[in-house]
Amino acid sequence: MKFPATLSFLLRATLPAFLLATAGWAHTDRVFTTTPTQALEANSLVRLLEEWHYNREAVKVQNYAEVVPDFMTELDGQHLFFLAADKESFEKRYPTRWLYNNVAGLGRLEPAYSIFSTYENRVESRVSWILNALKSDFDLNAPESFDVEREKAPWPADAAAADALWMKRLKFEIILELLNKNTVDGAKQVVRKRYERLLKNVDDFESSEVAEIFLSTIARLYDPHSTYFSAESYEDFGIQLSLQLVGIGAVLAVEDDYCVIKEIMPGGPADRSHLLRKDDKIIAVGTPDGETLEIFGMKLRRIVDQIRGPKGSKVRLIVQPAGAADPSVRREIVLTRDLINLDSARAHAAVFDVPDSNGGTVPIGVISLPAFYGPSGTAEGEQNSASKDVAELIERLKRAGIQGLVLDLRDNGGGLVTEAVDLTGLFIKQGPVVQVKNYYGEVRVDSDENAGIAYAGPLAVLVSKFSASASEIVVGALQNYGRAVVVGDSSTHGKGSVQAPIELKELNPKLARSAEKSGAAKLTVQKFYLPNGDSTQLKGVVPDIVLPSIDDYLPVGEKSLPHALGWDVIPSSAFSGKPLDARVIEPLRVGSQRRQAELPEFGYLKKSIEWFKERQEQRIFSLNLAQREKQRTADTEFRKSLQKERASLEKNLFAFREIRLGNAPAPAAPAPAASPENGATDDDDDPAPPQGYSSLDVHLREALRIVGDALQMGRSRSEWATDHAPLTAVASGG
């Protein structure tokens, strides 16, 4: 079951409790009806979308034909509970024009409550069937298989087809537990508790939660980042902004009844551990020495309560790694609860001794920036600034004698646009950095007004599918100006839109006068465009030199989201610059491609990717236990061979020394080696673990070599060097 996308402006928050709960059933004799406040909110939300949303003209009445199937999928993400006849019945009962007139015009939520009522009945009867089926033995020797990706599959044709599908689903779940060294009786017990918990969670479902899912479904017709918050959810969101809650420093959501990590907060316990990553699934939560509680099917607010705790206390998580080729793979991780340490989330740097063609080495700097942080306007005292920190690190790196620089934005999901503009200004004289177009078609140009340049030499920007929003502004602008060669995944994330929270009472006087609390909306109101007029939306920024990457085979990026806004162009702003000449880029690309074909580390990387790609594309799994055990054994042996090869490659890393900010603590320790103590297991399904400077990072090493090649080409290339003017104070817009 899927719920509203996580707010991009929760970048500094710890675990949010405002996201919605899991699917389920309620008391079948309970009848939900539209309250006057809900009717006003529904009407106000649609009016807001139609008048203020950036994409308002693209959504027509006929688009409401998607509301019924989309809402059904929100409740039943794997298409397991509803029947095909249910969809036909709902679409006949609530035709497109009726939906628009009654929901958008009158604020009636009857379709939401009627569909949910059918859903709760289906779940109640199915859970009863499951508990009865678990009393029998399962044949795990038959040549059967199960398709684990059913989000786009049709709903079962009838009750008999549903029973057959669910029998396969139960066998699949039993096998997962057996592969994790459980007994048959123990496996049945785990599955039984799982669905009993789902039943209990649905019993607690309230009408406001149903309304929230339904109205968010309508909002997402416009784009995947727009959503509706009930009064309770919006209040929870406000609590998150205070940053007073102690957890692991991750943003969570519930998808298909699984708790999924949507963001890792820079500086939080999860980030500092290097053991969790975006899209990992948390399967169970517990104490280090006690039992764990499986959280499948649990409401997110309850999950958050389990993970939060006193500062300094420990929490044990059982995690299914993101993109795990085998769903049975589990990783055990112990984290210490804490507030986000913003200092540890700041930029950090190092100087690497990179081999050159003459048998010597050349010093090249690396600056890693996890987010575009800066003054919030609410915190007291002196606040950190990404652009000022990077400016300081550049000066320290220059004093250390660097001859080239790599700016690493691979894990930078965005932040303050003002900081992105200021940081870009460290590498260009002055001029437009980003164009921002609003829902009225008005374009604002945010420019660097400072003629000073902090660094004028060869520069590479390292990116990934996780480089998003403000990161893409910087990357695209530096590429437009010809100040950097962009290296990395096939593209950046493609998040080129801006959202704003709006309380619905601001639009409706009746809601403002009501004693009852009202909800809010998060609305997409602007889009980003580069100086040359290209949008960063959907396509992202395409690197000059593409490196092989596992990320390209994961459902990561704006393109993977339904109803995503499209890519377009607007007129170019007036700026003095052009992309790096082909005479510069082509030799660098050819040199990189040669290394990709020859170096052992790229052989290791490509081997990892091919294996991962094959497993990732596997959506149909055998229900024969012996076959699954055989495949798992083979996979484990292959992973061990990869780990051995990696360990051998790590014996020949580039020498480096870290450069720290004057008032910052030492950077977080690099990712620890795989071992039972840190949670990695022999079944670790991640062939590309989180990186530290002292571990093998193929992409960073290649970016360093590319800068080294640029240096070999000579400083006479005017495309690579801008006159070095003295740097003046970095201020907003400069």
Task: Name the descriptors.
disordered N terminus; single chain; seven-stranded mixed beta sheet; 2-enoyl-CoA Hydratase, Chain A, domain 1; Pdz3 Domain; about 725 residues; alpha+beta; 3 domains
- What is the beta-strand fraction? 15-25%
| Strand order, sheet with most strands | 18-15-14-11-10-9-20
CATH topology name of the largest domain:
2-enoyl-CoA Hydratase, Chain A, domain 1
Gyration radius, in Å: 26 Å
The rough form would be described as globular
CATH homologous superfamily caption of the largest domain: 2-enoyl-CoA Hydratase, Chain A, domain 1
- Indicate the structural class: alpha+beta
Multimeric status of the protein: single chain
CATH architecture of the largest domain: Alpha-Beta Complex
Q: For this structure, what is the CATH class of the largest domain? A: Alpha Beta
Count of all domains: 3
Largest sheet: 7 strands, mixed
| Helical fraction | 25-40%
- Uncertain segments are 1-27, 240-245, 377-381, 665-690, 721-734
